[in-house]
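Protein modeling request. Please complete all fields; requests missing the sequence field cannot be processed.
Requester role: graduate student
Desired output: 3D structure, token encoding
Chains: 1
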Amino acid sequence: MLAPPEPFHYLLEDSPQTAFIYSVSNGQVLYVSAAYEKLFPNHQRQNAGADLPLLLSYLPAEDQAYARQCFAELAAGQMHDDLLLRVQPRPDLPPRWLCVRAHRSATPDGQVLLSGTLDDVTVDQEYLRNADKYMAKKNTTLEILSHDLAGPFNMLQQLAEFIGEKTLALNDPQVQKLIQVMQDTCRDSVNLIRDFVDGEFMDSANVELKRTRVDLVLALRQIVETYQQGEHLVAKRFSLQAAQPQIFVEIDHNKFLQVINNLMSNAIKFTREGGHIVVSVEQQPQRVLVAVADDGIGIPAALLPVLFERFTKARRPGLRGEKTTGLGMHLIQTLVRLHGGTLWVESAENQGTTFYIQLPGPAAQLAE
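Delivered output (368 residues):
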């Protein structure tokens, strides 16, 4: 087995990361550092080349083709971010996360090499993925509560307006002043609630994407289940339709799920009590299609061409008086485009609205 030149030999041998050199031209492992035997306790580094098929079998079936394609792209000279892989040598052991960092190079005689490191990042990944899960749950809960809390304030504001009209004949300035205070307090409370939720969304749109490989079916199911738990609060029904049990995409988990949350929030605003909101996801050739559909009041045809404009004229209050900034759809479109996707809408008045998001699938993302 090839040994790295001095003084790098001592640096690599003492490192907790597993360093490797693989010859693409010959299909041979030329070097692995001593940490390999700590990473895979039942394997010896002098047998690393023969171990490759077995190590690949440690990956879940749905990840094996993904790993092969990533390494093929690397060998062809295309750059990749850190490659995260799940490994599970035995069913009775918990899965681990490995981070692979590799670089393509060529020797003077034309031999193509992949060199890099393997690192166990299980603790970091479990922390981040739990954080992503609870962040998405938090955002979903905020959306539900914003509608639930805003409803009573809107109702009180309408009642105050009604009382104000009925008491005009009294010609009592003090009564009218008190009614105006009630109206202003209700309106300001609703605006405060929505400003808080909208502010969280707008702040996140200005942050660079951090993509990870995500099972989109699982992520969407978690969101929909949270909405289902709050059905009694918003008087709507929610459901998920997935064409496949698992669909993997490379997305910024938090930002993309905020897009879904905002589309569902929009559906809630324009769907009557007892209405139905459906999230669907489908794997297509080279693409993944996500849709958020409702059976609400729909969007007037005249507003559709300007719906995604910044500070669009298409903004309008919800059925319960919910405010809108005019930035929501523009920011949603911006985040979808940052993911390399496209967003469009189909709607008809009194028949409902469906927003479609088409994302690059794994094969398309690797080719970009």
